[in-house]
Amino acid sequence: MQVNKITGKAYHDATKHSYLSVQIDPNYVDSSTQPSSFKFYPKFYRRISLDFLNNSIHSFLWLTSAITLEKTYKNTVDKLRVNPSAGALYPTEIYVQIRGIQGIVDGIYHIEVENNCLVLIYELIDDGLEGYILPNNRIIGFIFLISCVYYRSSWKYKDRSIRYCWLDSGHHLGAIAASAFLHDRDIQLVFDFDKLALNADLGFENKEFITACAISGNVQDKKVRRLRLKVPFVCGTDYFEQNQFIEEAYKETALQKSCQQEIKHPQLSFDKDRFSQAVWNRRSIRRFEKQFISQELYFSIFQEIRQAIPTESFESIEIYAVVHRVEGIKAGLYKGTHLVKEGNFSEKTGYLCVNQAIASYGAVTWFFVSNYTNYQTAMQIAGFLGQRLYLASNYWGIHCSGIGAYYDDETQEFLETDKDVLYAMAIGI
Ligand SMILES: Cc1cc2nc3c(=O)[nH]c(=O)nc-3n(C[C@H](O)[C@H](O)[C@H](O)COP(=O)(O)O)c2cc1C
């Protein structure tokens, strides 16, 4: 697709769904051609098996990305993870720089999800990732990088997959934050840094790109130079087809600055044992039973997703809730807690979400809306909120699902907003 005046908004506009666009191109694919969804570095790289039962650092790292359910479907095994993913295509990968942690060589590691291990892809001397992210600081602890192997998603969703790459990346950041919470570690998200130089130095060519960073550790006032050597290229899929639109959308939005805010940390009040169960058992619901949820649980969930997001680079998101089945609350469209219009809109939201029953039969259908400065950051924050919504709902025994497919313009009209609709979700029983 040709986009002339390129801004983040232009990429959003160019990937809108409408009733007609979905009829014309329903995204059918031959599943036997699906590119691989795990990345492996060659055998000769040094590996550390993650002993998540006996080592809390291993468990912290492992729980950011772990496989939590294996499902056999038509002779293939789907490996579902702590993080959800649009179409279960899992474009995201995680790398972690570890510095100053006893028993682990200072280096950059790839988390090899399928084998539960860390792969040492780069040993540090006087250099490190800080040079690209926080040029005046050195981090004793962990620097996580999230990247997207975009073809895993564009294989099916074509240009619109750029949205899913970013939403998935936000979910993965949420999974890192959840693991940090369970392991008593603070986390800071960073969206504005020299991603393009990092992609080049990590050897990603045009096939993988860094979307975000999460820091967990002590910040020292010391400069660290950028990587002294390049990491060799290793492909994250077994085959690849280029999508120029996605590559452009990524690059353009990697360079724009996000809004700024003072960093604040969330005050999560979850019981850790129960929250750990929610992380382990998190799943997307496929069908709701059209039951009501209590008002108390609805407000508890709402409160959790509105907690502070620990980042200085920020984009603010407005939350719309279309209430269908919450005891004691009038059915209708709410902006935050303010009633915009009363009515039973459950059929309407089902239609808007491309006739998906999950958007009709739940208790609440949510829409995350923004007039962002940086589209890439805004989408990831929407995904991060999405992960919170999954975990807070599942914690309280309420089901949840992300919804990436909706008719953009009609949804905006229904919400009575001129801001872009970044993501939809449904919760219920
Ligand atoms: C960004 C995003 C968009 C999604 N969109 C839809 C959707 O439109 N319809 C749907 O039924 N599920 C949707 N899902 C749920 C995925 O299908 C689900 O996460 C995936 O199959 C893995 O299953 P799990 O979440 O149970 O681990 C979405 C998930 C994400 C993260």
Please provide a brief summary of the model.
This is SagB/ThcOx family dehydrogenase. This protein has 429 residues and is α+β, with helices and mostly antiparallel strands.
Chemical compounds bound to the protein: flavin mononucleotide
The chain-level mean pLDDT equals: 96
Query: Which outline best applies?
Result: globular
From the 3D structure, determine the CATH topology of the largest domain: NADH Oxidase
What is the N-to-C succession of helices and strands?
HHEHEEEEEHEHHEHEHEHHEEEEHEHEHE
Structural class label: alpha+beta
What is the name of the CATH superfamily of the largest domain? NADH Oxidase
Share of β-strand residues? 15-25%
Percent helix, as a range, is 25-40%
Number of domains: 2
Rounded radius of gyration (Å): 21 Å
DSSP helix count? Answer: 13
Task: Write out the strand line-up for the largest beta sheet, numbering strands in chain order.
Answer: 1-6-5-4-7-9-8
Write the CATH architecture name of the largest domain: 3-Layer(aba) Sandwich
CATH C-level class of the largest domain: Alpha Beta
Described by strand count, sense and barrel closure, the largest sheet is: 7 strands, antiparallel
How many beta-strand runs? Answer: 17
Distance between the ends:
40 Å
